[in-house]
Amino acid sequence: MVLALFGAGCSGGAESAEPPPDQAPQPNPEAAADLARVKTEPAASAPIWLIERAGDATTTFEVSERSYNLSARNIGLAARIRFADGDETFEAFFTPETGLGPDFNGNGCNACHHNNGRQSEPVDGAYLGIGPVVHISQSGAGELELPFALPGYGTRLQTYAVDGEAEAQVNILWEQEQGEYPDGTTYQLRRPVVSVVGREGMLSVGAELSLRIPPQVAGPGLLEFVPEADIVIAADPDDTNGDGISGEVQWVVDADGIRRVGRHGWKAENFDLIHQSASALAEDMGISTSINPIGADIEVGDEELADLAFYVEALAIPAGREIDDPLVIAGANLFESIGCTRCHTPQQRTGATNTPELDDLVIYPFTDLLLHDMGPGLADNRPVYSASGSEWRTAPLWGVGLLHEVNGHISLLHDGRARSVEEAILWHGGEARPVTDAFMALTGEDRAAIIAFVESR
Ligand code: HEC
Ligand code: HEC
User: Fold this and answer.
1) Is 8 exposed, middle or buried (0-12, 13-18, 19+ CB in 10 A)?
2) pLDDT of residue 22
3) Are 446 and 330 in contact (CB under 8 A)?
């Protein structure tokens, strides 16, 4: 790995170590090493997308519990000041005096997204702690509709209360299941069984429950700026190209009734980070904004909310690693040849944004931002807008290899059931079934290569 000093020259990179003064008037001194790092091209035998700078010039090479925590490396002083303002709200712990409650799931963004990272799966047999969240609804909502609120509970359970008894207590039991590869190697999977005891008594028959873990928040920012047209054109809802894979756009409807492309969250149910954040403030903390007013007071004002969303938008993307490792190269080639890239699209781009530093970046998130039917094994049977009960957004893979470094665990998939990349792959059913079968038919060595590749992102 070559580390050049800032200003020492940069071979072959799109980002020069010495940008013209008008483009970067106030470089971030702390980002110097990241910016100046010589860009390493993929090895000749690797796919062209096996690169380090997953987030283009925003990329950080930090490998520590701070990997998801740094500002985009290329942003100037004005944006860094706004980033710091948003960070204050992200790190804040709300109290009843600042609007928390009466019911809540967590008392701050950082309570659930610790170190901007991911929460681990719920503990077997214990009541649900801070982090994982249960979305809830009454069945019946139609196409392009928000789920129907369950009377007495709304669309999200709150498992804590400022005073007195919580709205609900959620208990998770893990059911184990065995499987075997064609070569005889065995594996074990587990799925959560969710049970809820509500303050209002028994939940109505047919209540739809969906357990979700909080994902890391370094990543959604740049995905916000992938142009809608790029997502829509990649969709193939009727599988006209006959590859067995039919990516579908998550059309959500905004407050003015306009259809927008959903992109954030496990079912892509939020179309931008202002709404994602306002929904967390309202539904997980009981905090009022102009988007989700609760009562008369607005507890987080528009400017503070916009700065909070900007904070997430302007987080650095962690670099891909080990691009010269023969195992990672072999795994990347297999990832493409057996069909993982049909959903986990390696490359996207950002369009025009309100922050020049984030415009026109070439990024490597490994997602098409589309919904796919993942089969009954992963289904939550709770439709949201265009997403059926078995459809999920292709999870981006950038940064997943650093989950352990940041949070000390690897809990993958929407409910954290997978304890490893291997388990995550084995759960892929539905449209992904032929690809999973191809994975299972590989030799142990080739399977290990794919896993090593994913862990290097
Ligand atoms: C009680 C826990 C909890 C709190 C508090 C919380 N979140 Fe989340 N967050 C989640 C969960 C769970 C998800 C996954 C949502 C889904 O799809 O179901 C999520 C998703 C997200 C995403 C989308 C990630 C992606 O990959 O698309 C962003 C961004 C985010 N949260 C930001 C925030 C911000 C900003 C705050 C503070 C205002 C916040 N969250 C507070 C639990 C929480
Ligand atoms: C048909 C589309 C599709 C194909 C093909 C596919 N995936 Fe996925 N992948 C998804 C979706 C959708 C999710 C999210 C599922 C969920 O959370 O329940 C996902 C999740 C994952 C995750 C977990 C990510 C996280 O943040 O928790 C990993 C790892 C992963 N896929 C790897 C692979 C690999 C490796 C292959 C090829 C063997 C592959 N996928 C093929 C659609 C696909």
Assistant:
1) exposed
2) 53
3) yes
Amino acid, single-letter form, for residue 40:
T
Residue whose C-alpha is closest to residue 31's, from 12, 41, 17: 17
Rg of the chain (C-alpha set): 22
Q: Which atom of ligand 1 is nearest to the CA of 395?
A: 26
Nearest C-alpha neighbor of 35 from the set 49, 43, 24? 24
- The residue contributing the CA closest to ligand 1 atom 43 is 112
Mean pLDDT, the chain, rounded, equals 92
How many angstroms does the Cα of residue 278 sit away from the middle of ligand 1? Answer: 10
Residues with CB under 6 A from ligand 1: 90, 105-106, 109, 111-113, 131, 133, 212-215, 217, 220, 264-267, 273, 276-277, 280-281, 284-285, 308, 312
Compute the distance between CA of residue 324 and CA of residue 45 in angstroms, rounded to an integer: 10
Name the residue among 224, 214, 404, 215 with its Cα closest to residue 314. Answer: 224
For residues 399 and 424, the answer to whether their CB atoms sit within 8 Å is no
Q: Is the pLDDT confidence value at 383 over 60?
A: yes
Joined together, the tokens standing for residue 266 give 């496990």
Average pLDDT over residues 315-328: 97
Nearest CA-CA partner of 414 in 386, 447, 390, 385: 390
Assess whether the C-beta atom of 70 lies below 6 angstroms from ligand 2.
no
Q: Relative to the alpha carbon of 212, which ligand is closest?
A: 1
pLDDT on residue 274: 97
Arithmetic mean of pLDDT, 327-340: 98
d(CA 85, CA 62) in angstroms, rounded, equals 22
Distance 334 CA to ligand 2 centre (A): 15
Question: Can you read off the two tokens belonging to residue 415?
Answer: 């409910």
Find the mean pLDDT for residues 392-404: 98
Number of the ligand closest to the Cα of 279:
1
Residues found in the chain? 457
For 227-273, what is each residue's pLDDT tens digit? Answer: 999 999 999 999 898 888 999 999 999 888 999 999 999 999 999 99
Structure tokens at 165: 């008894």
Residue-level pLDDT at 180:
98
Where does residue 390 rank: exposed (0-12), middle (13-18), buried (19+ CB within 10 A)?
A: buried
The sign of the torsion formed by the CA atoms of 195, 201, 206, 212 equals: negative
97-151 pLDDT per residue, tens = 999 999 999 999 999 999 999 988 788 887 888 999 999 999 888 778 889 999 8
